[in-house]
Each structure stands twice: as C-alpha cells, then as structure tokens.
Design goal:
The chain is about 40% helix and about 10% strand. It is α/β, with parallel strands linked by helices. It has 2 domains: about 160 residues, 3-Layer(aba) Sandwich (Rossmann fold), CATH 3.40.50; about 60 residues, no CATH class. Strands 3-2-1-4-6-5 form a 6-stranded mixed sheet.
C-alpha cells in the first residue's frame, strides 16, 4: 500500500489562524473518534495548547461495544484524565460536557477576580481531525444548528465563534491534521473511519486492510453475519474477490465501497478498531 498523505490548502490556512486564536482560548475540547482513540489524536495538539485545560471527548460511542467503552474509561482514568463519551448526532453525553465546561468557567473567573479582572464567558475551542463530529457536538451543545455538519471531511472551512450560553463561547474550527502522516497504520484507520479525505487513499486497498484488521482482532465473523460469506482461511484479497463475485457481479470497487460504508454507518454492528492496552 502506498503512503497515505492528505493536507489540503484550507486546513493549512485554518491551522495558521487557529494558532492565533488559541491565545484567546481558556479551554480545549479535543474530539476523537471512539472507534480509534489513539489514531484520531493529533500528535501536535498538546504542544499547541500548552498548559490550557483540556477535555477529552470520544465521539461516536454508539459505534463501539459497551464493554470496550468501559475498558477505555478505566484506561483513561488510570492515565489521569476523564473521557467524555458522546453520540453527538443524537445528543447523547453532551450534558456532562456542558456542566464540566461551565464549572471550569467558574474556576477561571475566580482567578480573574483574584487578579482584579471582570468575569467573562469562558472561551473554549473544539479541536480534532476532520469528520470526527466537532460541528455536530457544537450544534448539540447549543441546542440548534449553527455549525454545518455532514458525514464527510472538509465541511467546516473557517473558524467561527458561537455563544452557547451566557457562560460559554465556543470556537468551531476546521479539522486539523498533521502536514505529514508519519504513522501509516494510524492513517489507514483514519481512512477506514472516513476521518481523512477520500482523495488520499484507494478504496480497494483500504477495504482489504479493514478485512485484515478485523481478522487480527478476531472479529471476522461480522462478514458472515452481514454478507453471508465467511472469511475462513481466505486472505483479505481473496475474500474481497469472492464477495465481489458472490454479491456484486465481480465488481470489486463496488464491493469495497459497500464494505467501508457498511462499517462507517454502523450496519455491521458496534465495532472498535482499537482497544486499550493492558494495564
């Protein structure tokens, strides 16, 4: 598989603008994809925000098994941070985020008061890879649609401040991505989950990698359940050829797109592509 790289011009510009706006921000909401919590973490994000408080939001919790979610909760707590799991599309899990952000705002304003400064709304920014659900989260926190949201990358292209309550202002920012993706295993997972532009990868190679990944996770039975055709001892390439012949008149591109879209929409059931390390 060739190298997966994607860094469109609008993201480069947004990153420059974002670094300027970060100077005005009190709180960072980092949004990751709950199916791939490691791979959807921007490696430079922590250096950008420095000592600013950060809340970790793992979106699309509806697409992972409850048992895996519980394991992630325990793992992150052991790392010293509290994860907030959400399904921003349906609004699940957003109220605890709002309460926590409001509480942090009170702490920030108390410090301002001690310095002789007047209170003001806490300024928060929502950061993460493209298509992880940042704008959907903002819309849910606000209670109405102010940020464009769709199941594709590149919908948000400009930074925009939104007042979600008398106490909180949120900055909706375009998805950010490293200028070079050094971890190609993570890049493949981003492509599988549609958290990177489709121009950067080949659907057939990514679908093949997805079959390999589920075999490695011992979760290949989902293919028999969904398509009526077992992976068994076939290689991922052989399985896709067999499935294309079985259901798609030999059209491998159509077959691979169907596999990827079925996973992305949750039609294969709840599947996690990453699990927390052993404690």
């Amino acid at each position: 598989m060739g190298s997966i790289q994607w860094y469109p011009g609008h993201i480069a510009k947004a990153e420059r603008d974002l670094k300027e706006q970060l100077k005005k921000v009190d709180l960072v909401l980092e949004v990751r994809d709950a199916r791939i919590p490691f791979s959807s973490h921007h490696p430079q994000l922590l250096s950008w925000i420095g000592t600013k408080p950060r809340m970790l939001v793992l979106n699309r919790v509806d697409l992972i098994p409850e048992s895996i979610k519980d394991r992630w909760v325990k793992w992150f707590l052991k790392q010293g941070e509290t994860p907030y799991f959400t399904n921003a599309k349906q609004g699940e899990g957003t109220r605890p985020i709002l309460r926590a952000a409001t509480s942090m705002g009170l702490t920030i304003n108390q410090k301002r008061k001690e310095k002789g400064l007047l209170p003001r709304p806490v300024r928060a920014v929502v950061l993460g890879f493209p298509n992880v659900g940042k704008s959907a989260l903002i819309n849910r926190l606000l209670g109405r649609k102010v940020a464009p949201s769709a199941r594709r990358v590149g919908v948000t292209r400009h930074l925009k401040w939104v007042r979600i309550s008398p106490d909180i202002e949120l900055l909706d920012a375009p998805g950010v991505i490293p200028s070079r993706l050094e971890d190609q295993q993570a890049a493949v997972k981003l492509a599988i989950c549609e958290d990177i532009g489709e121009a950067s990868y080949d659907n057939q190679l990514i679908a093949t990698a997805f079959v390999d990944l589920l075999q490695g996770l011992n979760n290949q039975e989902v293919f028999n359940t969904r398509y009526g055709l077992q992976v068994s001892t076939a290689t991922s390439e052989e399985y896709i050829e067999n499935l294309a012949a079985h259901r798609y008149q030999g059209d491998k591109e159509r077959c691979c797109l169907q596999i990827l879209n079925d996973f992305r929409q949750g039609l294969m059931g709840a599947i996690s592509l990453e699990i927390p390390p052993l404690a």
